């Protein structure tokens, strides 16, 4: 497991922070959090916003800046920014500045706040999550200074991130359903068919968007289409 992720898992309870709790942090723009990074994962929404801002179609942005791989546990396609050189600089770091500052990936925009879904057993079983299940953490990174104080709610608002982020919830619901399906069926499918399914998920979830239209309705349509397809899926025959 990545060291940063392991630190969060090991210290999760002490890192938890409520929406109206305060934390002290002031970014001094040193750019260090964009170096030695190979863990910046992009959602379809990040890809849509960044590609559009750079004037690239999504597939070209992926070719230039990203790596796509199949998650070891999730078994679904994952996109990450591909670091550059021995310092493992983020490919979007130009000098000390983020080249896509106004549309940076949400994990970067929220830093040093992180978020995840904290689910009870019933939510895990029925796959029904809501924004009430979102849990925030303060990662206390030890950089910057402590000259400013914020609540999490204020921090999110400053970066135009909703505390009832519909995309975040729908994204995790979709990944949970697809991941369960891929894990359950991996051993039953031949390699060719499995690759075809992985490609389909990647194409529909990450690439099938029109920049002229709003992102979220397109995402909901694509996600529901995939979920419908796997519901009707039968091994050994077409769905
Ligand atoms: S996307 Fe921007 S903020 Fe995020 S790691 Fe890269 S350069 Fe830094
Ligand atoms: S978040 Fe921290 S490491 Fe990143 S630029 Fe700001 S002060 Fe530097």
Care to describe what's here?
With 239 residues, the protein is α+β, with helices and mostly antiparallel strands. The chain has two domains: 3-38 and 83-120 and 129-162, no CATH class; 167-231, no CATH class. It has ten helices and ten strands. The protein has helices at 3-10, 12-15, 44-54, 58-65, 106-110, 121-126, 152-158, 166-185, 191-207, 215-231, and strands at 16-17, 22-26, 41-42, 66-70, 77-81, 93-94, 97-98, 113-117, 134-138, 145-151. The strands form four sheets. The protein has a three-stranded antiparallel sheet with strand order 1-9-8. Strand 6 and strand 7 form a beta hairpin. The chain starts with a helix and ends in an 8-residue tail after the last helix. The chain binds iron/sulfur cluster (2 copies). Residues 34, 37, 40, 90, 92-93, 98, 100, 104-105, 108 line the site of one iron/sulfur cluster.
Largest beta sheet: what is the strand line-up? 1-9-8
> Mean pLDDT, nearest integer?
91
- For the record, give the distance between the C-alpha atoms at the N and C termini, rounded to a whole number: 36 Å
Number of strands: 10
Judging from the principal axes of the Cα atoms, what is the shape?
globular
**Count of runs of 4 or more consecutive helical residues:** 10
- Spatial extent as radius of gyration: 19 Å
Q: Main β-sheet: number of strands, strand sense, barrel status?
A: 3 strands, antiparallel
SSE class? alpha+beta
Number of domains: 2
The stretches of 5 or more residues where confidence is low (pLDDT under 50) are none
């Amino acid at each position: 497991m990545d060291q940063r992720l392991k630190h969060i898992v090991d210290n999760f309870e002490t890192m938890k922070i409520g929406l109206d709790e305060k934390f002290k942090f002031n970014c001094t723009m040193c750019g260090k959090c964009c170096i030695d990074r190979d863990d910046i994962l992009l959602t379809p929404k990040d890809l849509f916003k960044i590609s559009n801002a750079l004037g690239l179609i999504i597939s070209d942005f992926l070719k230039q800046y990203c790596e796509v791989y199949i998650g070891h546990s999730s078994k679904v396609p994952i996109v990450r920014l591909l670091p550059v050189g021995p310092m493992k600089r983020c490919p979007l770091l130009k000098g000390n500045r983020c080249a896509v500052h106004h549309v940076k990936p949400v994990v970067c925009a929220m830093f040093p706040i992180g978020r995840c879904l904290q689910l009870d057993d019933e939510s895990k079983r029925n796959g029904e999550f809501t924004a009430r299940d979102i849990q925030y953490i303060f990662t206390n990174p030890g950089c910057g200074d402590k000259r400013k104080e914020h609540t999490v709610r204020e921090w999110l608002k400053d970066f135009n991130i909703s505390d009832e982020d519909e995309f975040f919830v729908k994204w995790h619901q979709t990944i949970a359903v697809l991941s369960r399906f891929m894990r359950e069926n991996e051993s039953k499918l031949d390699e060719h068919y499995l690759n075809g399914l992985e490609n389909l998920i990647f194409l529909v979830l990450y690439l099938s968007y029109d920049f002229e239209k709003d992102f979220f309705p397109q995402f909901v349509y694509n996600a529901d289409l995939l979920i419908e397809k796997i519901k009707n899926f039968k091994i050994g025959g077409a769905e």
